[in-house]
Amino acid sequence: MIRMPARPSSAPVVGRLTRGTVALVALLAALVTVATTTPADAATRSCSGLSGDGSYSHPYRLGTVRGSIVIRRCPPLISGAGYNTAYFSFALSSTARPTSYIGARFTLGRNTRSAVNPRLLRGALTVIPSSAAEWTGSGPNYTGRYLYLAPLASGGNLRAGGYTLAVGKLDSPLRSTSTPSYDLVLKIR
To answer: What is the pTM of this model?
Structure first.
């Protein structure tokens, strides 16, 4: 964890931003860059080999996540089907530290222009909505969406316990009837 020194009362303030705030913004911008690559130490698994069926009541089960995991080749999410959302359950054995993130990596194409949008649940409650997800790549050719687990907008870091990552197709069928296939990326520190 980065510890910022206490700001002396004579330290300059840039507009309304302190040096600490500017440093935090720079750190978050660097994290967006990091999220576009597969962590070098990541364990990889195939989506087709996971237990569960990806539904809300029987999510794909990832177990306790420590370190980095990439779930490869998850099937596209399709409009009008029961598969416009997939659910993945996992547990954290300790509180997530800064730079921990989860999300989906994908490549948009001519016929698959709808993104894979992550949101984090704990039971029936949404902990982090898909609107908080960061985009990677540049529009219209985005390459992923990620949720940062620490620090949370509500304050603090994501605590140990059981969670469900829901990934969904949010765009209307008129724009694209399917997302691309995707990789699920979890990096827990």
So the answer is: 0.77
